[in-house]
Amino acid sequence: MRKPKIVIIGAGYGGLMTTVRLQKLIGVNEADIVLINKNDYHYETTWLHEASAGTLHHDKVRYDIRDVIDRSKVDFVQDTVVEINKEGKKVILEKGEVEYDYLVIALGGEPETFGIKGLKEYAFGITNVNSSRQLREHIEYQFATYNMEEEKNDNRLVLVVGGAGFTGIEFLGELTNRIPELCHEYDVDYHKVKIICVEAAPTVLPGFDPELVNYAVSQLERKGVEFLIGTAIKECTPDSIIVGKGEEEPREIKAGTVVWAAGVRGNSIIEKSGFEAMRGRVKVQPDLRVPGFDDVFIIGDSSLVINEEINRPYPPTAQIAMQQGEVVARNIAALIRNKTELETFTFDNKGTVCSLGEDDAIGVVFGKKITGAKASFMKKVVDNRSLYMIGGVGLVVKKGKFKLF
Amino acid sequence: MRKPKIVIIGAGYGGLMTTVRLQKLIGVNEADIVLINKNDYHYETTWLHEASAGTLHHDKVRYDIRDVIDRSKVDFVQDTVVEINKEGKKVILEKGEVEYDYLVIALGGEPETFGIKGLKEYAFGITNVNSSRQLREHIEYQFATYNMEEEKNDNRLVLVVGGAGFTGIEFLGELTNRIPELCHEYDVDYHKVKIICVEAAPTVLPGFDPELVNYAVSQLERKGVEFLIGTAIKECTPDSIIVGKGEEEPREIKAGTVVWAAGVRGNSIIEKSGFEAMRGRVKVQPDLRVPGFDDVFIIGDSSLVINEEINRPYPPTAQIAMQQGEVVARNIAALIRNKTELETFTFDNKGTVCSLGEDDAIGVVFGKKITGAKASFMKKVVDNRSLYMIGGVGLVVKKGKFKLF
Q1: Family per UniProt (chains A, B) (predicted)?
Q2: Of B5, B97, B203, B329, which has the highest C-beta tally within 10 A?
Q3: What is the dihedral angle through the alpha carbons of A198, A200, A201, A206, rounded to the nearest 10 degrees?
């Protein structure tokens, strides 16, 4: 009897969690498991703001996939997905193709630029290891160049962050820690540096508790961040952004660095492969399968699950992706054992912590609001938890965040 | 009775040596000593190839001027020289002016680009702390950007060094050490990187012993450097250089980084101030004074001293600048004590060592040819010697180069 073949594409939070759970649940003789990923490493997307600011080395935010998978059970293929042929039940890769009986699409999201002119070309992203280290190096290069100029271009030291959502705020927190170091490293006067956050929504961190939002804003303002709220980026040029607020005349802000940290959409492979989607996200069934395709699961940033309480989709997070991965692993195990009853996914929100740099954060954990050092400590607990869930204690010891007192 | 005022402009090897010698030779009541420098730090020009390649942090190549001067005897002024009014006996600074009775011009050299189009705009220089860290960051940014590109631009990983003189060769040595680290840091395939050295002269390291030159070339070639000898850079563009060899058709070499390490000329302040000079260098009298100006000494890269043996000028080096500084200090002490007989400067060549990266070098020391680890060790001795000469044992301990076995 031919063994079913389970193919997981993407080794982010969702895909890797699916893989490590499946390799525990399923015997070698029950199924073949193939994990496909572009890189041979997994990276902690939720830590990229640190690598981007330069406060944490990018090698600390990634680890070798082969360190966490059981290679006697899982075949790892390093390749890039080009398209999914869902009718032919195969995945087209850059260097070949792979057939599947069950497919888990866990390709992660992509930045959503809302068609804003110039953003794709001129703004930096906090998207992956490559983009983060490029951003870090770009910022350092601006500082390194400043003292070389005969006519000092102060705009070189202006950093604009587009988006005051989770990523934007966490990146701002790291930046305010990093800028004094950069000033010291490159002999730049601290007062010459300007950090501006532009957010189109009427508030910072929409959806967060207003009291915590106020705390975050005042802490970041104290450290030098200027917030332009209710202000939209209309265009990005090689050395500036054009912003507009309501009926006001749009104006130009010159900046040496523009970072786009607003908005995630689903993976473009989803639409390319003909799945029905909204901004690249597929509204999955309660069992996380794609309507009409009983052999295809989608989890993580390219899946859309409605929060019934507020009748709006859950925002894409690492937490939800990992919980989905656990359910998918159990559902696939059930399917290959010919069980027809599949488990329904419900999101169990354990809380959210948004860091504001070293030693400061805001959050809601188990329904309680926390700020400051306590929240910052909880942030590290959260960060270590995802390591633990995927790689156990060994990975926490190797890559975990500990503060040495 | 009014005390004479000695003004030293420039705190490089020559200027700083003059200052520390003067502060020992002269009593507080004999003269006022003023040292003027653009930065509040001295940097080791001969170590900049390391800071530029990123093998040594730039803070290791500089130290605070106030750490080596005796502030009860020397007034330190941080300012930039604009011009010298030699008839009015004053130095015009950006923020003021200073009168002098005796002036020591030790402003250092400037890169000589021989009017080659685009070099000033697009090539990086190994000239000072600012230019070195900009070059280091530029190279890192090229590596960081490579993996971000959808269409990989391999030319981004081409590094061209213009000039196979001392600085060019030493920089190449460091680069060959640094490139594997960069490849690892930015996930770049080592084989994609290309290092090319272009030299217009018919040989590498002109003036060096041919046996040592052969050793250097074969060592660097073994580490991946391609030499284009007898080849002139005709033009530098934002992403390439145009080279020509003899009668051959000029050709373009695409490169992400072009470093100009060929040729030093005297400081442009010299010509601006109306001194008679050749490429910014003034042929000084045997007592190091400027002909016709008995109160003005010029030392270091802006001075020109003929090597009688070969009837050609000595190349500008740290060694000659420091020896000049010692003589100038004694001659000024003589002048303020109304002695008319001044000391004649003769260069005492203690040897030259050219490093080829970590653990390798070539050199002639006390007339003996050396290569490899021995030469590399001697290079560190030479480097520590200039620290010792200026700042004593304390400075060697603080900033010296030691290899820990």
Answers
A1: Belongs to the NADH dehydrogenase family.
A2: B329
A3: -50
Cβ count near A385 (within 10 Å): 16
A83 touches chain B (CB under 8 A): no
Pick from A133, A144, A186: CB nearest B144: A133
A25, A91: one domain: yes
Measured CA to CA, the distance from residue A322 to residue A15 in angstroms comes to 8
pLDDT tens readout for residues B43-74: 999 999 999 999 999 999 999 999 999 999 99
Chain A contacts of B147, Cβ < 8 Å?
A: 130
pLDDT digits (tens, 9 = 90+) for A288-313: 999 999 999 999 999 999 999 999 99
Q: Which residues of A touch B136 (CB under 8 A)?
A: 144
Judging by DSSP bridges, how do beta strands A158-162 and A194-199 pair with one another? parallel
Range of the domain at B293: 5-38+79-111+265-349
**φ, ψ (nearest 5 deg) of residue A319:** -60, -50
Helix (H, G, I), strand (E, B) or coil at B46: helix
As for the ipTM of the complex, it is 0.84
Q: Are strands B240-244 and B232-237 parallel, antiparallel or unpaired?
A: antiparallel
Of chain B, the end-to-end C-alpha distance in Å amounts to: 58
Residues A364, A247 within the same domain: yes
Question: Do A131 and A88 reside in the same domain of the chain?
Answer: no
Q: Residues with Cβ < 8 Å from B177, sequence gap 6 or more?
A: B53, B55, B357, B358
Residue B55 inside a domain? The answer is: no
Round to whole Å and give the CA distance between B121 and A79: 41
**A330 close to B (CB below 8 A):** no
Same domain, A220 and A251: yes
B326 domain residue, yes or no:
yes
A residues 132-161 lying closer than 8 A (beta carbon) to B: 133-134, 136-138, 140-141, 144-145, 147-148
Q: For Cα atoms B184, B185, B187, give the angle at the middle one, nearest 5 degrees.
A: 60
